[in-house]
Amino acid sequence: MTYPIIEEDGFKYIEAGKGETLVLLHGLMGELSNWELVIEHFKDRYRVIIPILPIYDLPILTLGVKALSRYIHRFLKYKNLNQVVLVGNSLGGHVGLVFTVAHQEFVKALVLTGSSGLYENAFGGSFPRRESYDYIKEKVEFTFYDPATATKELVDDVFKTVNDRSRVIRILTMAKSAIRHNMAKELSKITIPVSLIWGKNDKVTPPEVAEEFHQLLPNSELNWVDKCGHAPMMEHPEIFNTFLDKFLDRILLK
To answer: Is residue 199 predicted with pLDDT exceeding 60?
Structure first.
């Protein structure tokens, strides 16, 4: 990642560009670099901010999607941000949904890609063979349509994380919180524009999850990315950016 991480008042984040603000929320195992091509595409016209979600820092007894939503609330107030566009992948989408239900006045629009919140077929309740590099490689490749997207660098990062006992306990705690927190009954409260940008071959949050989100979110659009898994902004960044461009033009440039 070519952007420096800013650390101030207990927050860590990346920021680039000026204009209307896009806040990008990463997933449970997501690196900031997952968003690099999105930042590159939008920073000339928008202010792009990626807060680092404190999955490894919050007290483990309170760790969950609601705790991360409260963190985003504190962060936006600290940065004096209002009417932002939240863009979330996987767990980041789930956090965006929880935050929007509680604080819709802060959010102008929401973009979800491979979001949890209804159903996800994630790593499950454990990493039974976390010491096996090949097993972890297989699990990372499962995230994508094209296994080649799971670069050695990415697999190395995940392998290192899941073999850190402190971190893996937090990851599993967070994953269980997300699975338990089903939002089906709350989504009708979100009346702002929502764009769903979804991999047609997502095996973690399959296409029927996107369709259910589309049905339950009253002001939503659904865009499919073909030959794509759980992270369209990584696997097909050009297509992801095109869909996001069109959505932003529609909601911000009226």
So the answer is: yes
User: At a CB cut-off of 8 Å and minimum separation 6, what does 150 contact?
Assistant: 137, 140, 141, 143, 144
One-letter amino acid of 144: F
Residue type, position 183, single letter: M
HEC profile of the chain? CCCCCEEECCEEEEEECCCCEEEEECCCCCCHHHHHHHHHHHCCCCEEEEECCCCCCCCHHHCCHHHHHHHHHHHHHHCCCCCEEEEEECHHHHHHHHHHHHCHHHEEEEEEECCCCCCCCCCCCCCCCCCCHHHHHHHHHCCCCCHHHCCHHHHHHHHHHHCCHHHHHHHHHHHHHHHHCCCCCCHHHCCCCEEEEEECCCCCCCHHHHHHHHHHCCCEEEEEECCCCCCHHHHCHHHHHHHHHHHHHHHHCC
Position 156 pLDDT exceeds 60: yes
Rg of the Cα trace of the chain? 17
Q: In the structure, what pLDDT confidence band is assigned to residue 131 with cuts at 50, 70 and 90?
A: confident
Q: According to the model, what pLDDT value does residue 110 have?
A: 98
Q: What percent of the chain lies above the pLDDT cut of 70? A: 96
